[in-house]
Design goal:
- With 292 residues, the chain is mostly beta strands.
- The protein has 2 domains: 134 residues, no CATH class; 129 residues, Glucose Permease (Domain IIA), CATH 2.70.70.
- 9% of the residues lie in helices and 26% in strands.
- The protein is built from 4 helices and 18 strands.
- The strands form 4 sheets. Strands 10, 11, 12, 13, 14, 15, 16, 17 and 18 form a 9-stranded antiparallel sheet that branches. Strands 4-5-6-7 form a 4-stranded antiparallel sheet, with no helix packed on it. Strands 1-2-3 form a 3-stranded antiparallel sheet, with no helix packed on it.
- 32% of the residues are buried.
Length: 292
């Protein structure tokens, strides 16, 4: 965040930071907790709240360890406390779990390639492989703030999960306990299905988002409220799409979360297609282990 405006659009406060979010200069006195990169500054600790972890802008490090064990092919990811791969000019980490490219860097590289006639991939300053660390259509991070797990992926329980579409009685996602929690999209994409309670085979109110690039899809079930309800609506990473609850076949309030690999997409008849998609273990996606 660089400035605040009043209701008429007049600038009333300004902020200037270094790359890691240390405030260099400011004007104005309006109370405001949302500062560097639009993130919330905790008034008690002086650290930025980035959901999975707190970030100390003075040291340029997170205050707790990363749950991701790292990738030996990209040694910088083995450091447990680095913010944005120690490259906050080109990257950020809004979830506290996974480095993401800023639009400015990607756009500048694409424009450069266009003018030079190059057809090469966008280069990533954190790796020599030429791959972007994050594909925006790949799920990453937790969809809610809760870290209290209920039923885990692949649990077999025919008293709970047996159905015509699930004869093997498998739990095809993970459950994160909590009521009234904001549910956020774990990747950018489009709403493929937004189902009210009563027609979801035990899922209650739920939403399916197909990621940009259509490689992945995520399902968010047992919602109390759905705020992404328009089929084909584009949602951004970390955008709030609903509130957790206990609709459908739920023993208590929680979010049921699935990651799936779409097979046949039919945007005109999404209701009939999605049950055939392959489910995968969501856990590696929570820590950003899968990035493309």
């Amino acid at each position: 965040m660089r400035f605040l405006t009043d209701t008429s659009g007049n600038v009333i406060d300004t902020y200037n930071y270094d790359a890691f979010g240390n405030l260099i200069q400011s004007t104005g006195t309006t109370p405001n907790d949302y500062r560097y990169s639009g993130e919330q500054l905790d008034g008690n600790t002086g650290f930025y709240y980035l959901r999975a972890r707190y970030f100390n802008q003075s040291s340029g490090r997170f205050v707790t360890m990363d749950g991701f064990e790292g990738d030996n092919g990209e040694p910088i990811t083995l450091h447990k406390y680095l913010y944005a791969g120690n490259n906050a000019v080109n990257f950020d980490d809004p979830s506290g779990n996974c480095i993401s490219c800023t639009l400015a860097f990607v756009t500048s590289e694409i424009i450069s390639n266009l003018f030079s006639g190059s057809q090469s991939v966008v280069k990533n300053p954190l790796t020599k492989s030429g791959r972007l660390i994050v594909d925006p259509g790949v799920p990453r991070g937790y969809p809610v703030e809760s870290r209290t797990f209920g039923n885990l992926y692949n649990v077999i329980d025919c008293s709970l999960y047996k159905s015509v579409t699930n004869p093997e009685c498998r739990h095809k996602g993970i459950d994160l306990k909590g009521n009234g929690m904001p549910v956020r999209a774990t990747h950018s994409g489009k709403v493929y299905r937004s189902q009210p309670n009563g027609g979801g085979g035990g899922y209650g109110e739920y939403i399916i988002i197909v990621g940009d690039g259509e490689k992945y899809a995520t399902l968010y079930a047992h919602l109390a409220i759905r705020t992404a309800t328009v089929l084909g609506e584009h949602v951004k990473y970390n955008q709030e799409i609903g509130i957790s609850g206990a609709t459908g076949n739920a023993s208590g309030p929680h979010l049921h979360y699935e990651v799936r690999l779409p097979k046949d997409l039919d945007w005109n008849n999404g209701n009939a297609k999605w049950l055939d998609w392959n489910d995968v273990d969501p856990n590696p996606y929570l820590s950003g282990l899968i990035r493309r």
